[in-house]
Amino acid sequence: MLWIMAFRFSWARWCLAAVTGCALVGIAAGPASAERSAATGVAGNYRTQTRLFVGDGFDACTAPSPRAMSAWWRSSRYRALGIYIGGINRACGDGYLSDGWVHTVTAIGWRLVPIYVGRQAPCSHQPHLALMSAKTTSNQAAAAADDAAAHAVALGVAHGSAIYLDLESYSRRDTACTNTVLKYLSTWTNRLHTHGYLAGLYSSAGSGITDLAHVRPPGLARPDALWIARWDNGRTVQDSAVPDGSWTPHQRIKQFTGGHKETHGGVTLDIDKDWIDGPVARIG
């Protein structure tokens, strides 16, 4: 998904234990989409409201114009948008992204999914990227979480929202690399919790998602929600890389189709397709 170098390279069950369940609070206009609100504990006793969304979404390199968002709302099935808010490896600009844009498009009805492009795996083969260091992994991840939280606050993304770290594909044949990645994710998760946000992870089903689901070093925290990248055109959050009982209910997104152009309401955008059943942004 990541739009690094200006093109795409290829906890918590808070609805079960902390409360009696996720109560349906509204139906977003459009087919097969719904919102839920759940009380959840973040960072110990900190309690806030998490917004959950079920339905069709897409992600784009930069924030489309309000006119485009209005046209797509009227004429497409999409009701949620993944949008990049920052990160050391972010390549695309803001586009129309601002606090005002966030409030304008959410007033239309759109739900937003914040994405942050942090450091990449030390065994990544993609050129010109800032990579994780085994010696300073925790410091790097903490700095990324601090920066992501600051960007979220500046955009009006309220506490309880999920921020998804974008981790691109890497080789799983390097155990040291995997351990560094998992340590980074653990610190990212814990640090975002101290800021009052949920921690999400976007990654390939064949690397980051598989490692997170199946390699479990003791003492390391795991993100609250997963964004699984597998371009198999399967419009579902179920995936063979993740056991059925993990990150459920309402803790998954799946990117099931890669970059392509679509036109709705006379406006063409270059997007990836997502099916969402998990936490998104709550706008303050």
What do you see in this structure?
The longest helix has 20 residues, at 175-194. A hairpin with a 3-residue loop joins strand 2 (34-42) and strand 3 (46-59). The model is unreliable at 2-32 and 39-47 (pLDDT under 50). The protein has 284 residues and is of the alpha/beta class. It is globular, with a radius of gyration of 17 Å. It is built from 5 helices and 10 strands; from the N terminus they run βββαβαβαβαβαβββ. Helix content is 23%, strand content 30%. It has an 8-stranded mixed beta barrel, surrounded by 5 helices.
Using brief descriptors, characterize the structure shown.
disordered N terminus, 284 residues, globular
Instruction: Give the low-confidence spans.
Output: 2-32, 39-47
- Total number of strands: 10
Count of runs of 4 or more consecutive helical residues = 5
Percent strand? 25-35%
Gross geometry: globular
**Roughly how many Å apart are the termini?**
27 Å
Strand neighbour order, sheet with most strands: 3-4-5-6-7-8-9-10
Helix content: 10-25%
Largest sheet: 8 strands, mixed, barrel
Give the rounded overall mean pLDDT: 87
Structural class: alpha/beta
Using only C-alpha atoms, the radius of gyration works out to 17 Å
The run of helices and strands is EEEHEHEHEHEHEEE
